[in-house]
Amino acid sequence: MKKVSLFTLAALSLILSGCALGPHVPNVQQGNVIKQAMVNQIKPGMSKEQVKFLLGDPLLVDTFDNHYLTYIFTKQVDGGRIKRKRVTLQFNNNYQLVKIRQYPLKK
To answer: Measured between alpha carbons, how far is 16 from 18 in angstroms, rounded to an integer?
Structure first.
């Protein structure tokens, strides 16, 4: 009888110790991973295909004006503040890159 109650007590203490830690908050990462080294490789005059080869397909594509590509990346660790980074690329009528706009991670 003592073995059963000792086992029950041990199992109960393990179950309750998990509750003391609090709820699990997962890390959330969305969008295109944008590293500064990747952005540094992008140069004016590059074609859309060359940019997509380096950064992948963009998260946002304007269906009414295909002269822009927008890459967005958000990350939240342990339920903390959301960090954001956005890179918007503007192309001319020949679909050659003319402007790069970066919005850094917010802290």
So the answer is: 5
